[in-house]
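Workshop exercise sheet. Pairs work together: one partner reads the sequence aloud, the other fills in the structure field after running the prediction. Swap roles for the next sheet.
Pair: D.N. / O.F.
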Amino acid sequence: MLIASHTVHAGTPSLRRSGGLLWPCLEDDKPDLLTCLLTFFRGCDDYVQNSPWRRDMSETLRLHGRHEFRPMPSQAAVVGLLAAWAELRKVLLADDAFLALVQPNTPEDAADQFQSIKAALMWFRVGLDRDIRTVEARNWLDAIGWQDILELADERDQAAGQLIAGRAVVGAEGDIVEFPAARREGAA
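Structure field:
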């Protein structure tokens, strides 16, 4: 089973900036909007790949957080997301590339395989914008905070960039933490 990415507590962005925390770990209590969306996307992907064996879409998507959103995605929004499944898979591949970076046994080529989640989300949105069947999906993404999702994706990409550049490390709890020397260089 694939897992979603990270969680962020309310107020965490200011903590990140001042304390060197670039991206929080998987173990935080309340998932951020990006994490919730990626979890839901994984449910959509799971449904598409296993629909011959799992005909009840509602149950599959409930298990992947459909009810966590306000507003909850309508059936038409879900169908729109499924219509863009090829683009949705690219977002999940970018998420997998990030997860490979922060695993305890990081593969040697993880840095080379990294893909920007923000870029993948933007291309996903372009794909949605080109398809008339995805109007409800686009409206739903806007309603839950598409710009907020992109901002979180950018923060996560920047944290990964610092990790790849050697200016940050994955902490014992899975957080991406900036080295103190890198914080001093950024302040100068």
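Discussion prompt: The radius of gyration is 17 Å. What would you look at next?
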